[in-house]
Design goal:
By secondary structure, the protein is mainly α. It is about 45% helix and about 5% strand. It is built from 19 helices and 10 strands. It has a two-stranded antiparallel ribbon with strand order 1-3. Strands 2-8 form a two-stranded antiparallel ribbon. A two-stranded antiparallel ribbon has the order 4-5. Helix 4 packs parallel to helix 8 and helix 10 packs parallel to helix 15. It starts with a helix and ends in a 10-residue tail after the last helix. About 50% of the residues are buried.
Length: about 475
């Protein structure tokens, strides 16, 4: 693939940062950066190398390479961990978190690693090159990574903004270069929101336009992220504005998928040309036969029926709602007989394709989500009639259900059907202060109300030992 060849050096850093991510055994490249960071003006080549390292951090299995997908599915009514598993993601499946939980701790440390890497670029001593367009593009991508990491932390470690934007339980902001001795307190939810928007807007200002490179953070990615962030924090007017920018004003290389190609977009393992670098994709993480997330990190090893750690199942009652739907073939074979009722594998994430094991690129953001961002915001602004009309037109392209009644409920249901397996459902429920109800295949925390502490990850014990100023979320 041409994109993979262009950016193979990005993946070289990405894999080093992510191999073995599910065992929290990430290689930390900071000492190498520190050696050149002290009092030195960075060259363009050095900044590019640091950006490559940052892409590695954000693409790791502990970030958007795997955990973001798995968390969003298991902490919802979509998926469950089979009884026949080998120890991965147990606490996530049960949502049985404590301040010693490794999954929550890894989410915290990996996202602050991304922020640290981004800060080293943003605050590098490059005054002599400050107006160089290439330098400005590199810094813009670092701002976007930082904004995305802040947003991810807020999604996990802060309560839903729908419960009140006056919450003091935002995240710990790191506006300057990474400092292990920085004992900052938690910011408020409002300040967290403002900081995320600031970083993404700084990224948008100088982000690269090259839309053919779907593995880079471009202006379209920045607009898309601003739409998501504004929706999450309840600014529906701005969410609609940025979603419309993505829908109506993106370069020609971004476009909505033809429904006839949707199944192949995920499952055409014998011809990856159907899957990778497609107009529907806004951002994806490249995987090659040399540089990939490997056996303990790639989503395919958990979701695919032939994956080494195959254990993530989907409830049969959910599949039953897809009869006649064009997305029905994305469901796979039955899982373990030990699960009652038996779950199903899905085919969105494959262990191998024609390029070899663990080489399916990881789709992170898609154009179609911009429509759902817009519809959700419109529904919340009282435009339900228009939403239902547009949503039903979309549903007909999938041979899906048609909807009436409450527009927001309809949007969330159809989004669940379109994006199952992609890590959205937990965030959709939490953002809208809706309970998680696991009707089957559940042994612990099967019905979690929106106000339950379990919707919020606890600050890791070790982090609070280093930084006593951080206030733990109530109940932990």
């Amino acid at each position: 693939m041409r994109f993979k060849n262009i950016y193979k050096y990005v993946l070289a850093f990405g894999v080093l940062a992510s191999v073995g991510s599910c065992t929290e055994d990430n290689l930390d490249l900071l000492p190498k950066i520190d050696e050149v960071y002290e009092g030195k003006v960075f060259s363009l080549d050095e900044l590019q190398q640091m950006l490559n390292n940052s892409y590695g951090s954000i693409s790791s299995g502990s970030a958007y390479g795997a955990d973001a997908i798995v968390f969003g599915e298991l902490m919802s009514d979509n998926a469950f961990l089979s009884i026949q598993h080998d120890g991965y993601y147990v606490s996530v499946n049960q949502m049985n978190f404590t301040d010693a939980s490794s999954d929550a701790g890894t989410a915290w440390s990996q996202n602050y690693r991304i922020i640290r890497d981004a800060n080293l670029i943003i605050h590098s001593d490059t005054e002599l090159l400050a107006t160089d367009p290439a330098i400005m593009e590199i810094r813009a991508q670092a701002h976007m990574m930082k904004g995305l990491a802040y947003f991810t932390l807020a999604q996990y470690f802060s309560p839903s903004p729908a419960l009140g934007m006056d919450s003091p339980y935002g995240i710990v902001l790191k506006p300057n270069a990474w400092d292990p001795e920085d004992l900052a307190q938690r910011s408020s939810l409002k300040d967290t929101y403002a900081e995320i928007v600031k970083e993404l807007e700084l990224g948008l200002a100088n982000a690269p336009d090259n839309s053919e490179q779907k593995i880079r953070l471009t202006k379209t990615v920045a607009k898309f992220l601003l739409a998501k962030v504004h929706l999450h924090f309840g600014n529906n007017e701005k969410a609609i504005a940025f979603a419309n920018e993505v829908i109506n004003n993106s370069p020609a290389e971004y476009d909505f998928i033809d429904p006839a190609d949707l199944v192949d977009y995920f499952t055409a393992s014998k011809n990856v040309e159907f899957q990778e670098g497609k107009p529907e994709t806004i951002w994806e993480i490249p995987q090659t036969d040399v540089h990939n997330l490997q056996v303990n990190g790639h989503p395919g090893v958990f979701f695919a029926n032939n994956g080494q750690h195959r254990s993530i199942m989907y409830r049969p009652s959910f599949k039953d709602t897809f009869v006649g739907d064009i997305r029905f073939p994305i469901f796979g074979v039955l899982g373990s007989e030990m699960d009652i009722p038996r779950g199903l594998f899905i085919r969105k994430w494959q262990r191998a394709n024609s390029e070899g094991p663990f080489t399916q690129n990881i789709k992170v953001f898609r154009m179609t989500e911009a429509k759902f961002i817009k519809w959700e915001a419109m529904a919340k602004m009282g435009q339900g009639s228009t939403v239902l009309t547009e949503l039903n037109e979309f549903a007909m392209t999938r041979n899906s259900n048609t909807y009436s009644g409450d527009a927001l409920t309809a949007v969330l249901e159809e989004k669940r059907r379109e994006f199952f397996g992609e890590g959205h459902r937990y965030h959709d429920l939490k953002r809208n202060a809706l309970a998680i109800v696991k009707e089957t295949n559940c042994t612990a925390n099967c019905n979690i109300e929106a106000t339950d502490k379990l919707f919020v990850f606890p600050i890791p014990f070790g982090e609070r030992q280093k930084n006593p100023e951080i206030e733990q979320y109530p109940g932990y």
